[in-house]
């Protein structure tokens, strides 16, 4: 199925200019989450002088597949030509290679912006508040320092909040639950590796016995053959 789609790429040669192909690639990337709307489809169809969608849709699928592999697999400039099968015309390969190289940095930046990167806890301090006020229940003041590694919002930020005893107990209960779940996951992973290490060890033992047995049989056969030869 994938290889048959490549046969629609020559339809790009119907466009009037390199800029038209550039527009099509940019439009496909811009609408990677939503798909082309009716207006964009009409523009692309006119650029390629297509009368209906029977040829347009496979072409768009092929181009989206090409763009996705190029961006998500982080293909280097020297390896772009490996994305194309031999059936794709050389001049078409050169055109698409030039355009993909042109948009590589921009599309990679867009891809990073699409990724959800949560800040991580870098440091935590706390102090008690209302220690001198007898009529007010004491609360803990928590200071968190968070590190955001996302390129668009890189840097540190501080978060400060208060915890009363009842809120703290609820929070601790949730944290214990998180700890237990993480411990269970680690335990499952360790059990998995332990089980497979035992299987691997048994396989090694079996192979060692098989090799030794084969060697012994070969040696025995050689000895018998030698004896028979001497008898003869």
Automatic annotation (TrEMBL):
Lineage: superkingdom: Eukaryota
InterPro entries: COMM, COMMD9
Domain (COMM): residue spans on this chain: 118-178
Protein name: Protein far1-related sequence 3
Source organism (scientific name): Quercus suber (Cork oak)
